[in-house]
TrEMBL record:
Gene Ontology BP, a term: deoxyribonucleoside monophosphate catabolic process
Name of protein: Nucleoside 2-deoxyribosyltransferase
SUPFAM superfamilies named in the record: N-(deoxy)ribosyltransferase-like
PANTHER family assigned to the protein according to its UniProt record, in alphabetical order: 2'-DEOXYNUCLEOSIDE 5'-PHOSPHATE N-HYDROLASE 1
InterPro entries: 2'-dNMP_N-hydrolase, Nucleoside_deoxyribTrfase
Lineage of the organism: Bacteria, Candidatus Gottesmaniibacteriota
Source domain of life: Bacteria
Example of a GO MF term: 5-hydroxymethyl-dUMP N-hydrolase activity
Length: 141
């Protein structure tokens, strides 16, 4: 199973901690035998790769998303790009699983998107990883 990971990358409040969490999600997927794509690990990170054009970012992300079986989106901070990717997933019939912290206010429009198959609401990063691992065990027994 191939996973397209999505989440905010631009103007993060705490980029090191957020990207460390993203890496932990990727490690969990790898442990479960999944292939994955994370933009920040693949040449379009806005900090590490500022010279990549917006058009190229769109092309790379949509190509990789179209090759994926599912999308996992972290919604911890606002991200227009993540919203666009979720809508792209919907129009291409790619199931979306969203992750966010308990108590976080997430757009009802996004939560109501037909592509969203499950909401993983967590209380800590370790709880998020456990919930994500459980999801993968059900999707990929």
């Amino acid at each position: 199973m191939r996973i397209f990971f999505a989440g905010p990358l631009t103007d993060l409040k705490n980029p090191d901690a957020t990207k460390a969490f993203y890496t932990q999600l990727a490690d969990t997927a790898k442990h479960r035998g999944c292939d994955y794509f994370w933009a920040f690990l693949n040449g379009t990170d806005p900090i590490k790769n500022p010279d990549v054009s917006p058009k190229k970012v769109y092309q790379v992300d949509t190509k990789e998303l179209s090759r994926s079986d599912i999308m996992v989106a972290y919604l911890g901070e606002p991200s227009t790009g993540t919203g666009i990717e979720i809508e792209f997933a919907r129009t291409h019939h790619i199931p979306v699983y969203i992750l966010y912290e308990k108590g976080k206010k997430i757009s009802r429009m996004l939560r109501g998107c037909p592509a969203v198959k499950k909401e993983l609401v967590f209380t800590s990063r370790s709880d998020a990883l456990t919930r994500f691992d459980t999801l993968l065990s059900r999707l990929r027994p």
